[in-house]
Design a protein that fits this description.
- This protein is an alpha+beta fold and 367 residues long.
- The protein is 48% helix and 14% strand.
- It folds into two domains: 3-252, Creatine Kinase, Chain A, domain 2 (2-Layer Sandwich), CATH 3.30.590.10; 260-366, no CATH class.
- The chain contains 14 helices and ten strands.
- Strands 2-3-4-5-1-8-10-9 form an eight-stranded antiparallel beta sheet, covered by helices on one side. A two-stranded antiparallel sheet has the order 6-7.
- Strand 3 and strand 4 form a beta hairpin.
- Helix 8 packs across helix 9 (261-277).
- The termini are far apart.
């Protein structure tokens, strides 16, 4: 599959395909694996990395789940193409910075990707819409077991799977979910929730993971350690916490509609008006307002299909996506103009928000 083909179709997890994705947008499972008889990528010389990639890439491409997949060496992609893959969460920012001896393999619906020679020899990743960590883990386990039959994994009977970073030693599993939490942010309770989650040994990060800020009221929650717990224990603990955060977000939305429906209506209405008529808008502002439109869709102010429209836009207005669509390098000012144009075009058939639904929710809570 060519890069252009990959770009033509949004992944199912990008379109709000799951019925329960209004708050939990996506679930992701990632496994770190290394080969026992060769140096880890960070220690390998360039010829060794190329040799390792040449050995691993056919094994990944031969998987049934990777039939007709997109498979490319990072050195053969432009900087914009690599950044597009980062924006789609198919490769990491760290891998995008690598060139010779690194590759990515992505299945057709973009729910499964394998990074070769990132920090570890293999990073296996599955993404699902909504809170479906178990489904993502089931797929990753299947391909992991297939690869282990033909590849000598670096494994210690006491420590578990050996990885480049000590925090991944053990299961090598990172489980995470992306949550949309505007209710907690607007009600100023997000700080308390983040602190509570951190005390449970979980990490809360921004939209693109470690070291990134939260944009569009989006937060990633993931496990921090992989040693001393089984895969089931890690996933069970994360699911419990995510369900609690999801409940807090629902309650925060209800409370906002009950206590100050006019304030909430004003935020949603202003976001709608600005996005429908803005001619210049930067990425941060656009994501914030799209978050409020998405909130309005979940609270009945807009038709339900607005949620999937916003999810697709969240990706399509990212800087690299805009440059790929334009097929040329753009200045930040040019991106801001094109971003506004795309949003105006996509939202032109969306009706004005039905603010009465917020008053109705408030009355229902008081009755």
């Amino acid at each position: 599959m060519r890069f252009s083909t990959l770009m033509k179709h949004p992944a199912e997890w990008m379109t709000g395909a799951s019925d329960d994705s209004s708050i939990v947008l996506t679930s992701r499972i990632r496994l770190a694996r290394n080969i026992s008889d060769v140096p880890f990528p960070g220690w390998a010389r360039k010829p060794e990395r190329i040799e390792i990639m040449t050995r691993l890439r056919p094994a990944v491409e031969s998987l049934t789940e990777m039939r007709n997949a997109f498979s490319q060496q990072l050195s053969e992609l432009t900087s914009v193409q690599k950044q597009v893959l980062v924006e789609r969460h198919l490769i990491s920012r760290e891998q995008a910075a690598r060139n010779e001896g690194s590759a990515a393999v992505v299945n057709r619906d973009q729910t499964l990707s394998v990074m070769i020679n990132e920090e570890d020899h293999l990073r296996l990743q599955s993404i699902r819409s909504g809170l479906h960590l178990r489904e993502a883990y089931k797929l990753i386990t299947k391909i992991d077991q297939q690869l282990e039959k033909s590849l000598p994994y670096a494994f210690d009977h006491e420590l578990g799977y050996l990885t480049a970073c000590p925090t991944n030693v053990g299961t090598g599993l990172r489980a995470s979910a992306m949550l949309h939490l505007p209710g907690l942010v607007i009600s100023d309770h997000i700080g308390q929730v983040i602190q509570a989650v951190a005390k449970l040994g979980l990490a809360v990060r921004g939209i693109f993971g470690e070291g990134t800020e939260s944009l569009g009221h989006l937060f990633q929650i993931s496990n921090q350690s992989t040693l001393g717990e089984t895969e089931d224990e890690i996933i069970n603990r994360l699911e419990r916490v995510i369900c609690k955060v999801r409940d807090h977000e629902r309650n925060a939305r209800i409370k906002l509609a009950e206590d100050d429906p006019q304030m909430l209506a004003d935020k949603i209405g202003r976001a709608y008006g600005l996005l429908r008529h803005a001619y210049v808008i930067d990425s941060k502002e656009a994501l914030t307002h799209l978050s409020l439109i998405r909130l309005g869709g979940d609270m009945g102010c807009f038709p339900k299909e607005v949620i999937s429209l916003c999810d697709t836009l969240l990706m399509d207005i990212e800087p690299a996506h805009l440059q790929h669509i334009s097929d040329k390098k753009l200045t930040p000012e040019q991106r801001d103009i094109i971003r506004a144009e795309i949003i105006r075009d996509r939202l032109q058939n969306i009706p004005t928000p039905d603010i009465g639904t917020l008053d109705n929710q408030s009355k229902q809570e008081n009755d």
